[in-house]
Amino acid sequence: MVIEYIALISLGFIVGLSGAVIPGPLFAFAVFDTCKKGRITGHYVIAGHIMWELLIIILILLGFGWMIQGNSRIIYLAGGIMLAFMGANMLRNKNRNSEVKMEKARVNSSIGGGLFYSIFNPTQPIWWATAGFALLATGLSSIGILGVVLVTAGHWLSDIAYYTFVSYVVHRYKRFVNPRLKQIAVVLGLFVFALGAFFILHGFLS
């Protein structure tokens, strides 16, 4: 039984890690937030991310997965527009003093930012309604609701481990990062804007 528990946690961890390592708006925010605050904030960012995922998981378990899948176009368009707006805002402020810009960041809370960039990442609900649902179903068919808890715990452990590691690396090598805060803001702004534009296009084509 213990081996089965470990297997389910490991499954959740591996599946979660495969998604966590793909760069996205949450990754961009984690890097910028760590630079802005000068300390490791990755675990706080993921705390906000987990809040959103918990809500999605509850909806899926209650049978509302169809609602997410049936409105994928709206999810992609809304998320894409918001991400494009956030990226454009970062680029618009590129010429401001870095310290002032950091103090007046639109999302100053690490947890709030983790929640915000998860809500407006269109891949989140879609992933949970498809691949994530398969992961939950695997846990449920194995040992019931405990299996769901274990695969979900493994998934979140991978998120915490990866984003804490990313935040640590950014903080550890801040002597290389801090002098380039303006350039980093521009690169991340372009990345978030491009990601938003991609999601908008996907929403129109889906």
General description of the model:
With 206 residues, the chain is mainly α. The chain has one domain (2-205). It has 12 helices and no strands. Helix 2 (25-37) runs antiparallel to helix 12 (181-205), helix 3 (42-61) packs across helix 7 and helix 3 packs across helix 8. Residues 97-105 have low confidence and may be disordered.
Distance between the termini: 43 Å
User: Rg, please?
Assistant: 18 Å
Give the overall shape, derived from the CA principal axes.
flat
Total domain units: 1
Total helical elements: 12
What is the secondary structure topology, with strand pairs?
Layout: H1 2-20, H2 25-37, H3 42-61, H4 65-70, H5 72-92, H6 98-103, H7 110-119, H8 123-129, H9 131-143, H10 145-172, H11 174-177, H12 181-205
